[in-house]
Specification:
It is built from two helices and five strands. By secondary structure, the protein is an alpha+beta fold.
């Protein structure tokens, strides 16, 4: 298990502002629903979680090579590395 101190992808984290704070960028464009939102900590992309039908946050992480997201749900304060499948 990789920890926050050893996960090399933590270096990809940048100060970001959510590009679409009102919801998942792709779902808003496509008119599709989402369950929870994740913020890419490299570029500010807002995507929907793996419980959402379209899983745009995971798709963005793989396609853009931006591995770390943070939940932007109220009351949640965690980050996830898609590459290592671990909290960071």
């Amino acid at each position: 298990m990789t920890s926050v101190h050893t996960d090399p992808h933590v270096a990809a984290i940048r100060p970001v502002t959510p590009r679409t704070p009102q919801g998942c960028e792709e779902c808003l464009r496509l008119g599709t629903p989402w369950v929870h939102l994740r913020l890419c900590l490299t570029c500010g992309h807002v995507g929907c979680c793996d419980s959402s039908p379209m899983r745009h946050a995971r798709s963005h992480a793989g396609g853009a090579g931006h591995p770390i997201v943070q939940s932007i749900e109220p009351g949640e304060n965690w980050r996830w590395c898609y590459v290592h499948q671990n909290f960071v």
